[in-house]
């Protein structure tokens, strides 16, 4: 039975200890006891003993106190695959088809479990039971004391790998060997792509979890024992209902085989062959962190004390901070690390060279300072430059050392070779992503929210690195036209939340009445309510204060902020964030002190930014979103007619139907007759707009009919797809089931004895012969009914005949309901005659017979035109009126616009926006009243409130021809400003001092630090008790900035001030022209007159003259079909163009199968693609190769077979074939090809015949 040795006689080598601070300085001891790779490692329950098992067919015991080998497990006749430890015993599995039980203290072999017929892959133990999986496709349950095989679970089609035991959650521990009363569940995963659950009281499979397309490699169960997670070689993780087997979610993100899963509370950690580990939220399936840094498969993962430990085949172990994802420490090993265990400040790792390495895992929190110091010693620039060259685009991340992000010195030159003057941040494009991020859990409270916002700003600042100004604009109170859209969105969200809660309660109630076992309702945990991101709330006030302290900190401590000015426009300053930014730019460029060559960079997520940037006519204007796209051009004129935040779209214009292209086409046709552009400086010429709308009105009827035709075709395709899917499902159903006495019976019903079996068999044969393909559906229905009979016991009074009709079956009714057309009812029918009358009747409750019908249509059209004028002025001149809004829910038809030239194009002057709390009353539903003072809140819900009609609890959503509710129109009453302000006048005295401050209209704040040229001027504002009126800033000292400043009543930094933009007359027109002294930027796009004698290279970064081009190594060149350094391009001479080959084909830079290497020194060979300055490059192609694609693409591309191969694709005399049997292939012709230029090129072999056709890939 083998022997156990209590003490190892040989002495372990002396431990190698090195000074800490180097990469391998944490090595405490490396012991070489095993003679083969260590396959698994395990630690005892008391933490005093480590067990390692190896390829050398032995296991060893290690004392964690002395770190010495104290026992040898010897007896297996094959390599040991796994090990597990109970309180007193060790269990090992081996390739010798056995499982062994050992004494934990002495290492003596106690029992041998024999029964498997192939290698045993896994062994786990619990109480008096042990379980093992094997290549023989079975799982066995053993009595741990007697070694008797109690159960053999069969059902997998291929070898079984991982095992997971789920104990009864009510008892929390495993049972003993009394299997009849054991409610534990065993989960097994197999190479056949399935997992199965097994009960202890039978050999039958309980549930099969089927969905993976490749082997199931690992298993995990959540803490409640209700959800199963399976990892697979198909790179996905799937979650399942443990008891029913129903799939829940598919977690995608890894690019390689999933190696291990570990569930910790509400999070799950995974590691993969794609060299990364990930953190997932169990409930939602979202990936919140990715732990990178390894260069090979991560073989093992362990979570401990908020740290993630990983080991890899790249001979390293890494420790990550679980929340931030930063790498805290990297350990080096003597070979690829196959397993490890971390305990008591030590890491015991087993390597494939047989050594056990003991590492120091203490003081992990102190490593961050050492890494930052390392970055400063090596220099930021030295680390940063290779990253830029490798990325080929604008860098967006700071440098990392051992996975920890180092601080970036933003005072250094911009690594993107382009320096910006001003950076503008639309803060709502930062606040909202930080509120509900896509790649991590949402913040739980305001503290986490603030930190996320600060980190986001730091990241954008490190990318752009402005040198003069940072402008941070938060959305303030919006104009009334925008408030209506905000009101609709918030009321709709409140309605959907309420309906969802009611629906969930109804479903739970119905299920409980039916006796279903339901999970407990989700506990209400602390979460961040995004509704508070509205001017006037306490959160926005706190955000303003936090940002002021953040700015003060950065100005004092960050060298990149030293010489810049910072403007903070918080939520108390009226206006949308992007429009406050544009107002600043517009008013500054109208000042005589403005530098026309200022380089602007605007960060934000709104599509409006493109139009706003173009409207400024600043030549150096860049928009940064997900990636840099400098000087982007987008069509922006006339888009207001397609709909925006202020106006509904015209019924005949839908973006998905090409509305923009249609308008542009009409504009091109009409422009020659217009006599000029539609607008100048944002002021619309309505007579010219009339011509555009008339042209659109002529084709309105055609548009509606075409829309209906497309809709009908779409429904036909949808119905055909459903039918196709239905037929596909029916193929999996049984084609025929036996009938009569051999028909299926319910599980609980005992079948009766067979009478006249020969006669019954004859009847069944006749039934099968009468089966035809045309009756597939009927046969399937009959088969489904028979299968249901097997599962359901009929009631005593049930009719046993089969004469029930399909309509009596609830399942058939359900299918009938699903097949019904769920499209919303359309009462307007725009594609039929009379559509205009039906439209106004349904949308405006006005029929054609009513008095004033034509006048009302004209009134709606004029209001819409007024909105078009307002929108364009808003974009070019600033808000023309804070009070104006479009007073209807729907737009008129294009054919309704008449006599537009006589309409006025002006708005009421001197209007004022709502105050912040007044805006909250205008946009919030009653359900969000918690953000308002108590007495104000009562006005939203009290039955006697004079404005109770502004806050309906329920309202209609008109789908308006759309399919989904979120696309419909919320029919809410418009807020009457006079009634609202009149009701609020009675509750204004109830405001506290803090609420009164939150309700004020504020001013921008300007920050700078000592040393700035204008700093002394600001100091003078505070001397002598401070001035009481705003004064003009000295433009010569402020770098050309114009405006007025005054002391701040609550300064955060000494001498920061309140700032006001320059003031202009009400009739002032801001010119939308390029300033006279502006120097256009260098062209970055390829113009029509591009020099075609030189190869075109795309511009990377912001500098078109950049010379530090990215390059690729030999493997990358082979992947891109480069051949011996030659340029593989469309115009490559035939003798030099390499043949197409697959990834599995032989490399073409070194000999294989007798093929001689190609020398780059061959006469006539083009120079390397990297030798951009070599004069031979252009001469070679200009002399020998004509340009085939002179009109468009001039880069590298493969030559089609038809243009470069001779008629006989045989090898030339200097190019032997790769194929081993080429000498016997008579189809090959050794003749050479003579082209039209007299250039003789040897014909090439077709290497697709040298390798499997499935590997051949044509990569253009």
Kindly describe this structure:
This protein is of the alpha+beta class. Among the domains are: 50-293, 7 Propeller (Methylamine Dehydrogenase, Chain H), CATH 2.130.10.10; 375-477 and 535-631 and 991-1076, Rossmann fold (3-Layer(aba) Sandwich). The protein is 25% helix and 20% strand. The protein is built from 24 helices and 51 strands. It has a ten-stranded mixed β-sheet with strand order 41-40-39-36-37-38-46-49-48-47, with helices on both faces. Strands 1-6-5-4-3 form a five-stranded antiparallel β-sheet, with no helix packed on it. Strand 42 (679-680) and strand 43 (683-684) form a beta hairpin. The relative contact order is 0.06.
């Amino acid at each position: 039975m083998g022997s156990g040795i209590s003490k190892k006689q040989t002495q372990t080598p002396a431990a190698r200890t090195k000074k800490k601070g180097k990469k391998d300085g944490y090595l405490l001891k490396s012991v070489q006891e095993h003679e083969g790779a260590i396959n698994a490692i395990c630690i005892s329950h008391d933490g005093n003993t480590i067990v390692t098992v190896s390829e050398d067919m032995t296991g060893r015991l290690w004392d964690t106190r002395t770190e010495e080998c104290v026992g040898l497990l010897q007896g297996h006749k094959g390599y040991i695959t796994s090990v597990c430890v109970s309180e007193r015993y060790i269990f090992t599995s081996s390739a010798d088809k056995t499982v062994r039980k050992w004494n934990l203290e002495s290492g003596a072999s106690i029992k041998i479990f024999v029964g498997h017929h192939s290698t045993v892959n896994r062994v786990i133990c619990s109480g008096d039971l042990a379980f093992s999986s094997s290549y023989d496709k079975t799982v066995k349950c053993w009595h741990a004391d007697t070694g008797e095989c109690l159960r053999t679970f069969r059902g997998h089609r291929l070898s079984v790998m991982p095992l997971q035991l789920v104990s009864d959650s009510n008892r929390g521990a495993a049972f003993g060997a009394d299997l009849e009363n054991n409610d534990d569940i065993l989960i097994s995963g197999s190479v056949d792509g399935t997992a199965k659950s097994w009960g202890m009281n039978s050999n039958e499979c309980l549930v099969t979890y089927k969905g993976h397309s490749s082997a199931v490699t690992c298993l995990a169960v959540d803490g409640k024992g209700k959800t199963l997670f399976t990892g697979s070689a198909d790179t996905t993780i799937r979650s399942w209902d443990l008891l029913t087997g129903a799939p829940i979610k598919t977690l995608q993100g890894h690019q390689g085989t999933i190696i291990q899963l570990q569930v910790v509370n509400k999070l799950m950690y995974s590691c993969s062959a794609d060299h990364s580990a990930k953190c997932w939220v169990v409930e939602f399936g979202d990936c919140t962190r990715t732990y990178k840094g390894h260069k090979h498969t991560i073989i093992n993962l362990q979570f401990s004390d908020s740290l993630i430990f990983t080991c890899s085949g790249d001979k390293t172990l890494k420790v990550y901070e679980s929340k931030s994802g930063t790498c805290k420490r990297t350990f080096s090993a003597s070979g690829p690390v196959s397993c490890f265990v971390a305990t008591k400040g030590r890491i015991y790792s087993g390597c494939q060279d047989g050594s056990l390495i003991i590492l120091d895992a203490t003081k992990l929190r102190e490593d961050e300072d050492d890494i930052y110091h390392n970055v400063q010693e090596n220099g930021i620039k030295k680390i940063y430059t290779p990253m830029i060259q490798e990325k080929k685009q604008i860098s967006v991340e700071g440098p990392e050392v051992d996975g920890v992000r180092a601080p970036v010195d933003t005072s250094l030159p911009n690594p993107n070779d382009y320096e910006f003057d001003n950076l503008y941040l639309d803060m709502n494009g930062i606040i909202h992503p930080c509120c509900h991020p896509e790649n991590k859990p949402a913040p739980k409270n305001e503290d986490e929210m603030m930190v996320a916002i600060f980190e986001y700003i730091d990241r954008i600042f490190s990318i752009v690195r402005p040198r003069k100004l940072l402008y941070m604009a938060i959305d303030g109170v919006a104009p009334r036209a925008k408030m209506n859209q905000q009101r609709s969105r918030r009321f709709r969200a409140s309605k959907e939340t309420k309906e969802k809660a009611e629906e969930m309660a109804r479903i739970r109630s119905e299920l409980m009445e039916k006796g279903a076992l339901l999970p407990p309702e989700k506990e209400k945990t602390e979460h961040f309510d995004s509704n508070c991101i509205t001017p006037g709330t306490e959160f926005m006030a706190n955000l303003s204060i936090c940002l002021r302290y953040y700015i003060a900190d950065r100005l004092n401590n960050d060298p990149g902020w030293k010489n810049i000015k910072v403007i903070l426009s918080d939520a108390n300053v009226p206006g949308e964030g992007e429009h406050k930014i544009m107002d600043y730019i517009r008013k500054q460029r109208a000042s005589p002190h403005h530098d026309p060559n200022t380089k602007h960079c605007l960060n934000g997520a709104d599509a409006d930014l493109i139009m706003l940037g173009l409207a400024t006519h600043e030549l150096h204007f860049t928009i940064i979103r997900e990636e840099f796209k400098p000087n982007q051009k987008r069509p922006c004129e006339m888009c207001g007619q397609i709909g925006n935040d202020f106006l509904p779209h015209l019924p005949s214009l839908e973006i998905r139907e090409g509305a923009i292209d249609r308008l542009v086409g009409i504009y091109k046709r009409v422009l020659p007759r217009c006599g000029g552009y539609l607008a100048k400086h944002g002021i619309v010429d309505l007579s010219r707009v009339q011509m555009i709308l008339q042209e659109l009105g002529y084709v309105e009827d055609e548009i509606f009919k075409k829309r209906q035709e497309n809709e009908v075709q779409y429904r036909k395709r949808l119905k055909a797809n459903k039918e196709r899917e239905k037929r596909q499902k029916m193929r999996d159903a049984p084609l025929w089931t036996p009938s009569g006495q051999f028909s299926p019976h319910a599980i609980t019903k005992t079948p009766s004895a067979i009478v006249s079996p020969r006669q019954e068999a004859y009847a069944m044969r006749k039934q099968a012969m009468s089966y035809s393909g045309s009756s597939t559906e009927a046969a399937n229905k009959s088969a489904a009914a028979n299968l249901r009979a097997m599962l359901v016991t009929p009631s005593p009074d049930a009719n046993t005949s089969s004469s029930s009709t399909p309509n009596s079956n609830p399942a058939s009714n359900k299918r009938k309901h699903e097949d019904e057309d769920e499209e919303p009812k359309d009462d307007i029918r725009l594609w039929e005659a009379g559509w205009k009358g039906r439209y106004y009747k349904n949308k405006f409750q006005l029929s054609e017979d009513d008095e004033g019908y034509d006048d009302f249509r004209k009134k709606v059209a004029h209001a819409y035109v007024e909105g078009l004028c307002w929108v364009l002025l808003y974009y070019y001149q600033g808000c023309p009126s804070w009070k104006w809004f479009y007073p209807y829910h729907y737009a008129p038809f294009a054919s309704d616009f008449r006599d537009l030239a006589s309409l006025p194009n002006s708005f009421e002057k001197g209007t004022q926006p709502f105050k912040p709390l007044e805006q909250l009353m205008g946009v919030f539903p009653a359900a969000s009243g918690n953000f308002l003072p108590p007495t104000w809140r009562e006005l939203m819900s009290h039955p006697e409130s004079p404005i109770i009609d502004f806050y309906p609890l329920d309202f209609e959503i008109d789908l308006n021809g759309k399919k989904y509710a979120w696309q419909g129109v919320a029919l809410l009453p418009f807020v009457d400003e006079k009634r609202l302000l009149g009701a609020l006048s009675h509750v204004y005295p109830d405001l506290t001092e803090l609420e009164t401050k939150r309700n004020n209209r504020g001013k921008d704040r300007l920050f700078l630090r000592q040393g700035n040229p204008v700093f002394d001027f600001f100091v003078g504002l505070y001397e002598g008790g401070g001035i009481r009126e705003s004064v003009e800033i000295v433009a010569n000292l402020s770098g050309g900035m114009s405006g007025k400043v005054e002391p701040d009543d609550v300064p955060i930094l000494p001498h920061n001030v309140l700032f006001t933009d320059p003031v202009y007359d009400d009739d002032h027109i801001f010119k939308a022209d390029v300033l006279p002294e502006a120097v256009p930027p260098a062209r970055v796009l390829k113009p029509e007159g591009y020099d075609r004698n030189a190869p075109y290279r795309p511009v990377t970064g912001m500098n078109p003259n950049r010379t530090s081009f990215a390059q690729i190594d030999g493997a990358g060149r082979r992947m891109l079909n480069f051949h011996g350094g030659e340029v593989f391009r469309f115009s490559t001479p035939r003798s030099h163009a390499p043949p197409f080959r697959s990834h599995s084909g032989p490399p073409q830079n070194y000999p294989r199968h007798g093929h001689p290497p190609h020398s780059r020194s061959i006469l006539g060979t083009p120079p390397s693609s990297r030798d951009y300055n070599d004069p031979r490059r252009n001469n070679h192609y200009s002399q020998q190769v004509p340009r085939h694609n002179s009109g468009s693409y001039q880069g590298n591309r493969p030559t089609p077979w038809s243009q470069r191969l001779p008629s006989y694709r045989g090898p030339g005399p200097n190019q032997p074939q790769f194929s081993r049997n080429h000498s016997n292939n008579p189809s090959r012709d050794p003749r050479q090809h003579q082209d039209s230029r007299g250039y003789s090129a040897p014909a090439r072999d077709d290497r697709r015949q040298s390798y499997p056709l499935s590997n051949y890939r044509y990569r253009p």
